[in-house]
Amino acid sequence: MIFAIPYQNERIAGHFSKAESFVFTNKSDSIIRNNPALNNDSCGGKKSLLALLKEQQTDAVLIRNIGQKILAKLLNANIRVFRTSGRLSLETLKLSELTELIDPSQGRPCKNSKKNCCKKEVNTPPRILKPQQNINGQFTVFGVKQ
């Protein structure tokens, strides 16, 4: 299972699409990629971020905060989304303490309603859930490479 983790200051970033970079890990190997949505005020940045997640064959993302629209896009792409609480470091994260988000309404409402991309409706078709996978145990990111 490949996890994508928004990463900033050696911790899980406070907001999904505003992270400096993303760590992609399968719990035995990890790489870091720059966030294509960072400093991009248009909808294209988030589209590029979603493309990066798909390119890395991401199965799940770990987040602290996420907007409703990008959450809907992740769920529609069959990428599982797990919320952490607090400012956890990657070394202390326990998978059993995560909450899985399964509906776009669990994300934050759009604050920038004046932007064209935020005016679009969030249409979430019924999704076929991937089978639940065991996510118990200690989570450690090994061998992070730049």
TrEMBL record:
Domain Dinitrogenase iron-molybdenum cofactor biosynthesis: residue ranges: 9-87
Which InterPro entries does the record match to this protein?
Answer: Di-Nase_FeMo-co_biosynth, DiNase_FeMo-co_biosyn_sf
Which keywords does the record carry? Nitrogen fixation
The protein, known as: Dinitrogenase iron-molybdenum cofactor biosynthesis domain-containing protein
